[in-house]
Design a protein that fits this description.
Layout: H1 20-27, E1 37-43, H2 49-61, E2 66-72, H3 85-100, E3 104-111, E4 127-136, E5 141-144, E6 153-161, E7 169-170, E8 179-182, E9 189-198, H4 220-237, E10 246-248, E11 251-252, H5 262-270, H6 293-322, E12 327-329, E13 333-334, E14 347-351, H7 360-371, E15 376-380, H8 393-405, E16 410-417, H9 446-459, E17 464-465, E18 469-472, H10 475-480, H11 488-496, H12 499-506, E19 511-514, E20 529-533, H13 540-551, E21 555-559, E22 569-570, H14 575-582, E23 587-590, E24 596-603, E25 606-613, E26 619-625, E27 631-635, E28 642-644, E29 665-668, E30 671-676, E31 681-687, E32 712-717, E33 722-725, E34 732-734, E35 738-739, E36 750-759, E37 769-773, E38 778-779, E39 793-794, E40 797-798, E41 800-805, E42 808-813, E43 819-821, E44 829-838, H15 842-846, H16 851-862, E45 881-882, E46 887-891
Parallel strand pairs: 1-2, 1-16, 2-3, 3-10, 10-12, 11-13, 12-14, 14-15, 15-16, 18-19, 18-20, 20-21, 21-22
Antiparallel strand pairs: 4-9, 5-8, 6-7, 6-9, 17-24, 23-26, 24-25, 25-31, 26-30, 27-28, 27-31, 29-30, 32-46, 33-34, 33-36, 35-45, 36-44, 37-43, 37-46, 38-39, 40-45, 41-42, 41-44
Helix pairs in contact: 2-3, 4-6, 5-6, 8-9
Protein name: Glycoside hydrolase
InterPro entries: Galactose-bd-like_sf, Ulvan_degrading_GH
Biased composition (Basic and acidic residues): 631-646
Length: 893
Amino acid sequence: MSGAGPGTGAGTAGAEAGTVSALRSGWRDPDPADRPMMRWWWFGPDQELGEIDRELEAMAAAGLGGAEVAFVHPLRETADRFGSPRMLAALRHAAERARELGLRLDVTLGSGWSFGGPHIGPEHASRRLRWERREISPAPLDVPARLSWPGDGLVGAYVGEGTAPTQWVHVPTATDAEALRIPAGLGPRTVLLAWSEVTGQQVKRSSAGAEGPVLDHLSADATRHHLDVVGEALLGAVPAALLGSVFCDSLEVYEAGWTPRLPEEFARRRGYDPVPVLHRLVTEEAGGEGPDTAQLRVDMGRTLGELVEENFLAVCRDWAADHGVPFRVQAYGEPPVTLSAYRSADLVEGEGAGWKEITACRWASSAAHLLGHGVVSSEVWTWVHSPSFRATPLDLRAEAHDHLLSGITRFVGHGWPYSPPEAPGLGWRFYAAGALDDRSPWWPAMPELTTSLARLCGALRRGERVADVAVLVPADDARTAHAGGFDLFKATRDLIGPRIPAAIRTGGWDFDLVDDPALETLAPNAYPVVVVARSTRMPETTRAWLDAVRAAGGTVIAVEAPACPAQEQVAEAEFGAALRSALPPDVSLRGDGGEIGTVHRRLDDGDLYLVANTGGTVRRVAITPRTPRAHWEVLDPDDGGRRALGDRSSAGAEGEAGGGDEVGGGVDDGAITLELHSYQALVLVGSDGTPARTDAHGDAASLEGTASRAEPHAQLALAGPWTFTSAEDAEREVTLPHSWEGELAPERSCGVYEIEVQIGAEQVPAGARVELDLGPCAPMPRPDGAHGFRAEVRPPVEEIAVVEVDGERAGIIWRAPHRLDLTDRLRPGTHRLRLTVLTTAAGASAVDPHVGPMVEESRRLYGERFALQDLDRALEDVHRGLHEVPVLRILRG
């Protein structure tokens, strides 16, 4: 891990030039490398070259940066198999076409997850300990030392007197013995046997021909064998020069807590043979020699963590390096991989929304910060608005902003299902949400979304992230609760609990997780505040590091953590006050309602703050950075505009429906006032050098296409009557608000509204602006039992409106504030205004008669490899149409 920390040069590897001028110059046209990618599900294998080309071209047109190929289960009968020449040729073709289109192509080092397949035999399969307990008589007993299942065997035997022993005796046996001899005793006894057995876990969602056991991630031999068979075939077909990275998903090797070489490795690392005392993993033995139960579990957990890092992650990284391609990984899950294990990978990735929580995104971004990586990606939209095809562009925007608030700087969307052109109905889909491709009727809005996210990702790689608080991962306490394989990330997250991270983030600070191995090189002054939560035990090296923090002038706050001195202890309810007493917030917020999140990046000559509204209501928030700056400006990721802020808080605006400023704001006594609409994000930049361009009076100015708000001169409500048509239906008159729910078939995803608008010369003063406002969002709480992230609002249009004036396209409205500038198109006179409303494909999905037969055919041919989720919720809270009365607003110049 890096020896520096936030604010002291935590590392800028992979970061862009960290100056205000560089930020400004690159803002409008973001680096293509910052565009979101998509996980591209290849079913089968069963791909056609023409369709591969079409889908890559559609990705490029949507502003996506590339694709990560993931080989998953078949959906129809195919003679092809995973790893076949035809599959590998299709992969090579995709890589070459992606390169031609300027897209990145990554590939997963296996099919399904976790890694494994038919090439994995018992000697390479994932393992666990199984404990067998029986009461026996005083007579001697011979126990067969081999199980009937291939590769399983006896690890250890332990005998205790009586039926509830408090003392156990290890019964030695030769490793190659056919039977274990238990000698005679004095009375009834209990025997405890530890068996090494394969977990039996099979690769999930595997392609045809890729079925088989999951490999032993604790064994370098098993990892190398998989890479020799699968990895070499993939990179033999596609040169590294055509690949962005090779990828491993989160580790999901359940109960993996054993490997054949573990006793030898354990003894070498911990200094004693674990086998004679192995029973203490599952017993509470009183007294005896050697470590107690808690210490043995700690030692076992540490050993497992070291083995998965060295024998899986590092082996994959080194293999990838030998082939000239980076190794990207989600390093969390089972076996209990540590946060520091990310040092054994090239590219860091997380997943999961929850900016006020400890998520896998936070786990990954913390590691990236410590390692000095400017790029940290996330698997985003994994369960977005389930079921498939139900997600909206507003859902995608909202979840992506949440990930950015957790320290993420690049996205891999989950995902894009390959579908052949001849597939009936809506086509192929993944079993889980989402299905994010050009089959969604709202897809015309995707280029605007991807460009906005690319701007934000690029900005958040400039300079260095500011995080004042380190939260120590209580790893040893988590290990004492587990006797074998477990998920260290989840266990420590649950120990820390949700209130501590929420208090940090809503209080105006940012934080990193740090673990014991990271402290070996982390400077004691890297963080002003270190939080130790619910820790009862820790390595002596960690205690010494905390002493060094105190000596360097830092503050240690112990939240119900007996491992720290008594004077540092606070109750969880007192934590926020203790943190405020130790350190002023990096950013103070008023009016945020706990829904405004910030990320601070320190530039060479200024400060950058991402400010994001994570809720469904308009928030007018006063922001006071701890670091004062002479000049402030706001950058809007939605249109690439920049705007200087004046010194008046009144420069802001009044509300979403009545004059709110898309980029409104002002400065008053050091507080910057901004108005943020539902799920909107802005970038605030402060500097002391040359200010952003302003007008002659030094007041708020229009910059690069983003106009300041002005007082409305006139408003024209467009209630109707409008003409409405859908597909081949006859034209009819409607008044707004209007929904075609219940009027038209569920699969109807397009409705066209038209109206004639007359604008008088007196209504448009010289220099005035004209905008169309579809209205505010309405809060819509998440339904009970709903799965996946979703924006908790009902927008005024579901989901987008393509706007035309007099037959010419003027733009798309899909995000809050739902407005479009029509100044150049609506001048005095009579105009024809058309709104083409495009929804999701949820309706078409709900009534698609081919879905059931597709699933049944796959099961008939290949067994039950997946189950489509939440199909009964496809039409939940769907209200197609325009839900407010649009307003034409004339604003004085």
